[in-house]
């Protein structure tokens, strides 16, 4: 029932868009049917896939680096006073600001875009990793020691929920950075396509690009939720019980 | 004692250095424990019981004194030692099932053998059929049973228990006390049980070590000559039980007069 209502509202919004597009005469706001028709002009292989690939590669690298660094810094408490101020500063730099630097250093390459995405996506995981590792129940570590197990064998599962929560934020950041990185010094990709369509007044195609972006974001978030539910089934169940 | 002791502690002392002050947890603790003996350790809250246990288990290094296990000085964590920690909430892994938690200490043994041994340990604590439950799906008493199963699964020789029943209700507590005595006797385990509950110590132990307030030292050793099996109700009603209880209370209340 709730799902039905949600679909109804979405349909209503599309209808409003359609009507507004048909009645408007500025040419800047085409009806949704035009935008959907323009979807055909977007080639999944050359426009969407390279973008999505870069986003996922950057996301994967960023999350892995963030997890490794975060857990390491959190575990080696002695390290923290040395690196904390630097981390706080670097984290506070808005990621798009490093884009010009990256273009200078790495050129207008795919590798540059992946690097920028990874560098931005790393932070939420890294910060979550530091905090969660510092907060690992000392009792778990005692059990590991008394059982002659390596600390990492209890730290990783203990911090996994926090890392995954960080990764969820990182996913959004990765998509944003994907678009932004393709709007600078680019010749392909969804961000480039949208910018190019705007510059050439291919307004319907611009909206089509935005629709594809929305669908892409929705798809990766859905896949992420699936994986999350699978990996953290114990955590969800526990929360469910604790919550009543 | 004719037998050579399994555990020997001498002159143990341990302080914790904080930013501004230093807390001396234990001042001078020494005792011996024979193989198969069930030793109770009582003392007021905060007197350093957990610290003592951690030194005995090799989890903490004492500042002074020595711990010997089976004739060898304890420097790391001995293989044949296991611990039931004070708080099962903080020692069972929520991401593992009860069966997997129990299997954790023997995770290097083969999968089939490990599973069989874990099942057997769960059987012993009366949790047959709960192997696939996660800790948060079990009651507090059942979680503590899982912790006990995990502590015995590797067939240790020395079992250390830190106020294992402090956070379960009175009924469950009596049941778990019985269960622990039965299991450890069956397995021939040497047990050191820490508790702040004097009755519990008298009911379970062969001998009770009475510790002073912080910084702690041994005020008295009280051998408990009560027949086994002991009963929660009957044994408590015995005059001898009352005498032990009175003696230990007095020693704790007036440490100066301890002779
Ligand atoms: N890791 C630690 N760091 C600092 N102080 C500690 C630490 N562990 C214990 N203490 C202090 O040592 C004293 C004894 O603690 P503990 O051994 O836990 O007592 P008990 O188990 O008898 O309640 C307490 O005052 C406690 O605050
Ligand atoms: Mg304690």
Automatic annotation (TrEMBL), chain B:
One Pfam family it belongs to: ABC_tran
MF terms in GO: ATP binding; ATP hydrolysis activity
Residues in ABC transporter domain copies: 7-238
Swiss-Prot/TrEMBL keywords: ATP-binding, Nucleotide-binding, Transport
InterPro entries reported for this sequence: AAA+_ATPase, ABC_transporter-like_ATP-bd, ABC_transporter-like_CS, ABC_transporter_ATP-bind, P-loop_NTPase
UniProt cross-references to PANTHER family, sorted A to Z: ALIPHATIC SULFONATES IMPORT ATP-BINDING PROTEIN SSUB, TAURINE IMPORT ATP-BINDING PROTEIN-RELATED
Name listed for the protein in its UniProt record: ABC transporter
Source organism of this protein record: Actinoplanes cyaneus
Gene label: ssuB_1
């Amino acid at each position: 029932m709730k799902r039905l209502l949600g679909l109804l509202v979405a349909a209503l919004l599309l209808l409003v868009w359609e009507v507004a597009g048909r009645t408007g005469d500025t040419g800047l706001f085409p009806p949704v049917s035009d935008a959907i028709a323009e979807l055909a002009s977007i080639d999944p292989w050359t426009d969407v896939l390279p973008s999505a690939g870069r986003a996922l590669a950057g996301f994967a690298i960023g999350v892995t680096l963030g997890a490794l660094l975060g857990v390491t810094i959190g575990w080696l408490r002695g390290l923290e006073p040395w690196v904390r101020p630097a981390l706080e500063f670097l984290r506070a730099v808005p990621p798009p600001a490093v884009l010009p630097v990256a273009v200078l250093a790495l050129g207008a390459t795919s590798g540059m875009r992946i690097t920028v995405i990874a560098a931005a996506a790393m932070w939420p995981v890294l910060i979550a990793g530091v905090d969660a590792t510092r907060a690992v129940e000392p009792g778990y570590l005692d059990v590991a020691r008394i059982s002659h197990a390596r600390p990492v064998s209890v730290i990783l599962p203990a911090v996994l929920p926090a890392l995954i929560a960080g990764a969820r934020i990182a996913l959004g950041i990765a998509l944003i950075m994907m678009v932004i990185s393709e709007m600078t010094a680019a010749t392909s990709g969804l961000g480039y396509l949208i910018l190019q369509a705007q510059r050439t007044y291919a307004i319907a195609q611009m909206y089509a690009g935005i629709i594809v972006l929305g669908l892409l974001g929705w798809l990766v978030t859905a896949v992420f939720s699936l994986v999350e539910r699978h990996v953290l089934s114990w955590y969800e169940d526990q929360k469910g019980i604790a919550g009543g | 004692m004719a037998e050579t002791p399994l555990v020997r502690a001498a002159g143990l002392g341990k302080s914790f250095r904080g930013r501004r002050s230093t807390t001396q947890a234990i001042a001078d603790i020494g005792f011996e424990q024979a193989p198969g003996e069930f030793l109770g350790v009582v003392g007021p809250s905060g007197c350093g019981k957990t610290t003592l246990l951690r030194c005995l288990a090799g989890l903490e290094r004492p500042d002074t004194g020595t711990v010997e296990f089976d004739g060898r000085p304890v420097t790391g964590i001995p293989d044949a030692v296991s611990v039931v920690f004070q708080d099962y909430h903080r020692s069972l892994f929520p991401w593992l099932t009860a069966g997997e938690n129990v299997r954790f200490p023997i995770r290097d043994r083969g999968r089939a053998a490990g599973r069989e041994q874990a099942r057997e340990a769960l059987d012993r604590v009366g949790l047959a059929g709960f192997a696939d439950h996660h800790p948060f799906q079990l009651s507090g008493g059942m979680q503590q049973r899982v912790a006990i199963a995990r502590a015995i699964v590797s067939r240790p020789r020395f079992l250390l228990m830190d106020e294992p029943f402090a956070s379960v209700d009175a009924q469950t507590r009596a049941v778990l006390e019985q269960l622990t005595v039965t299991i450890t006797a069956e397995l021939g385990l040497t047990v050191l049980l820490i508790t702040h509950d004097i009755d519990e110590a008298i009911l379970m132990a062969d001998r009770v070590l009475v510790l002073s307030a912080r910084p702690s030292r041994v005020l008295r050793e009280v051998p408990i000559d009560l027949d086994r099996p002991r009963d929660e109700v009957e044994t408590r009603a015995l005059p001898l039980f009352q005498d032990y209880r009175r003696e230990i209370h007095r020693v704790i209340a007036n440490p100066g007069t301890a002779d």
